[in-house]
Specification:
The protein is mostly beta strands. It has one domain (7-11, 96-325): Tachylectin-2, Chain A, CATH 2.115.10. It has strands spanning 7-12, 29-34, 40-44, 62-66, 77-80, 97-99, 102-104, 106-115, 118-128, 131-140, 148-155, 165-170, 175-181, 187-195, 206-211, 214-217, 225-237, 240-247, 252-256, 270-277, 288-290, 292-297, 306-313, 321-328. Strands 12, 13, 14, 15, 16, 17, 18, 19, 20 and 21 form a ten-stranded mixed beta sheet that branches. The two termini are 13 Å apart.
């Protein structure tokens, strides 16, 4: 474990005076990918018109588009998915409604990926925070403007409930690699892979499992990293793999650099970039953030200037409830 990288806050990415023109007062998450047309696509979770949680305009997920040239100076939003400037809910369902015989409170995004001219979004269909009915994949062929169900779903108890919160990235071997965990922030990580052209075929997904003392693909997946994890973000940066993890058990956000997704994660260089704090002790300039979570790598950034989208939610006062942009030099992780 590294001693920690020096990070700096760039700006608030959501909130009053920042995203109000898109009808976004309070929101969180903000997982990102580059659209085929070059824009940044950020997918946010539960969103409200007022600052905080609750009130009018509840929708999730929503999409904002960012100018890629602003990725390192502070992302500037140039539009939203929906009609006009208002960021509409991109999936057709109603909150707190019955879907397939189950009450669904919300649908929460976990990761988005671009493969060729198509974008794919993985989401959790939830009865509430930490309670996942099932997960599913949606597709966009118009740069993230509209999304359509692929028909791909997995039950919430798939792989013992460790296939709920997911992150994925495309390797140079034609496979998409994915780490997953539960949505309870008390579980370790599983690893999977799937040929990119069969991403929406559940039968094509392979687990990375240990049997008779040996690891191999195609066996039931075995936990590769023990702990209590939440949001995850796997990306390739400068031809190297990076995995950003919300380590809920240790109340911090870490970044590791595995040589490959299926290399031993305990041997990968790893550093803490942000630490959780109390509200009276937080100091964004020195990397202490109260009630932090998330941690998504911003596309087009580099190891020596790596930018992350980080969320925080004051559950006692209901504000802040926002996403923020932080950056730091992680070049030492490159070895």
């Amino acid at each position: 474990m590294g001693t920690g990288a020096t990070v700096r806050k760039i700006r608030d990415l959501t909130g009053p005076g920042v995203t109000g023109e898109f009808g976004i007062g309070g929101t969180d998450l903000g997982v990102m990918a580059t659209a085929p047309d070059g824009r940044l696509v950020a997918v946010f979770g539960d969103t409200f018109e007022r600052a905080g949680v609750g009130g009018p305009g509840w929708r999730s997920p929503v999409v904002l588009f960012g100018a890629p040239e602003t990725a390192r100076t502070g992302i500037q939003w140039v539009g939203a998915a929906g009609r006009g400037r208002y960021a509409e809910q991109i999936l057709p369902y109603r909150h707190d409604s019955i879907i397939h015989g189950r009450r669904v409170s919300t649908v929460i995004p976990t990761d988005v990926i671009t493969i060729g001219a198509t974008m794919y979004l993985h989401v959790m269909v939830c009865a509430g925070i930490g309670r996942v009915h099932w997960t599913e994949v949606h597709r966009s062929t118009d740069n993230g403007e509209t999304w359509h169900h692929t028909g791909t779903t997995w039950p919430g108890d798939h792989h013992g409930g460790l296939f709920q919160m997911l992150t994925w990235a495309l390797g140079d071997d034609g496979y998409v690699y994915a780490f997953s965990t539960g949505f309870q922030r008390d579980k370790g990580l599983l690893l999977h892979r799937v040929p990119a052209e069969r991403l929406t075929d559940p039968a094509a997904w392979q687990g990375w499992g240990r049997r008779d003392g040996a690891w191999s693909w195609g066996d039931p997946p075995t936990v590769v990293l023990n702990g209590s994890y939440g949001e995850l973000c796997l990306r390739r940066v400068a031809d190297q793999w990076l995995l950003c993890l919300f380590d809920a058990g240790n109340y911090r956000i870490d970044v590791s650099r595995p040589a490959h997704p299926n290399s031993n994660p305990h041997e990968a260089p790893r550093t803490t970039v942000l630490r959780g704090s109390s509200w009276h002790d937080e100091d964004h300039a020195s990397g202490r953030v109260a009630q932090l979570y998330g941690g998504y790598i911003v596309p087009t950034t580099t190891l020596d200037d790596l930018h992350l989208v980080v969320s925080q939610w004051n559950t006692a006062r209901n504000w802040p409830y926002r996403s923020m942009q932080f950056a730091g030099d992680l070049s030492r992780l490159a070895g």
